[in-house]
Amino acid sequence: MDIILMILVACGILMTLGVLATGVYSMAHGGVFNDEHSGQLMALRVGLQGLVVLLVLVGIIAAQH
């Protein structure tokens, strides 16, 4: 269970980093893609960050029992 949780947290962090990098790159270059997708990328990043925090909390609670 612990290794699965660690893998899920690592994947969540990498996905968050990917979305963040895409958003920063898009914002730096501007254009139509940025105009159309900046809000979606931000919402996805926040959702992924929330998921990672939730998984970490589950890991902390599981480790205490």
Summarize the structure.
This protein has helices spanning 2-29, 32-64.
What this model shows, in words?
This protein is an all-alpha fold and 65 residues long. The protein is 94% helix and 0% strand. It contains two helices and no strands. The protein has helices at 2-29, 32-64. The model has no long low-confidence stretch (mean pLDDT 95).
How would you sum up the major sheet? none
The total count of strands amounts to 0
Shape: elongated
Characterize the quaternary organization of these chains.
single chain
The number of helical runs is 2
Gyration radius over CA: 15 Å
SSE string, helices as H and strands as E: HH
Task: Name the helicity range.
Answer: over 70%
Mean pLDDT: 95
Q: Span from first to last CA?
A: 13 Å
Q: Quote the beta fraction.
A: under 5%
Detail the poorly predicted runs.
none
Q: How many separate domains?
A: 1
Determine the structural class based on helices, strands and strand pairing: mainly alpha
Please describe the topology of this protein.
Layout: H1 2-29, H2 32-64
